[in-house]
Amino acid sequence: MTAATELQGRHALVTGGARGIGLACVRALAARGAAVTLLGRNAQTLQEVSRQLAAEGLAVAAVAADIARPEDVAVAFAQARAAHGPIQILVNNAGQAVSERFERTSADVWEQMLQVNLSGTFHCTQAALPDMLQGGWGRVINVASTAGLIGYGYVTAYCAAKHGVVGLTRALAQEVARKGVTVNAVCPGYTETDIVREAVGNIMKKTGMDEAAARARLAERNPQGRLVSADEVAATVAWLALPASASVNGQAIAVDGGEAAA
Length: 262
Hints:
The chain is an alpha/beta fold. It has helices at 20-31, 43-55, 70-84, 107-135, 156-176, 194-207, 211-219, 230-241, and strands spanning 11-15, 35-40, 60-64, 89-92, 138-143, 181-188, 252-255.
């Protein structure tokens, strides 16, 4: 079996699949032979990305949904099944981060962070898991964050939600361990994504730093002194989807240059 056929016949759904880590995961899974559905909130963006991927020779399906709304998720997952069959690999990548001092964090922001980062993971996993249990094989891969392993100032709501994702991962892994399904989390450090670009903008606004200095402040948390690439995260996600990773279950794997180990 070649690398291009390792996931042949498997249907993978990637949330937040139109950009950043999600888009890198779509490419990595498709390159290994999976039929991929990307899910996002903006239908127009999904169509544009689907055309771009088609030009690269990757045929994907796209479905629109707000993952914080279980009724939206149910409809989108039904559409995904109609395109590619039962969902056997779920990458819960969609997420948002808002930076604010704890005493200034509103109840609305708190709920937003929980709904998108934690409840969205819950809704999508509940929607996909029956397919995996029925087929006796499945992979749930949650893109959490080093914020699910350690604490960061000024993002308490985000940290709380991502710690919840890691807890969900570990608990569900125990429930499905004897059913052919694995549940794992990938925890990137600061990665070249829109979230980091927004963080850079916030640092510049609040400190007066230029862009290079703001980026360096984020990169310095990584013992390797750099930002992580989306492709590096996607390679770890793809590895967890492979048959060879069947014994890896309930893990939270940091992709962070060693930050969480310090």
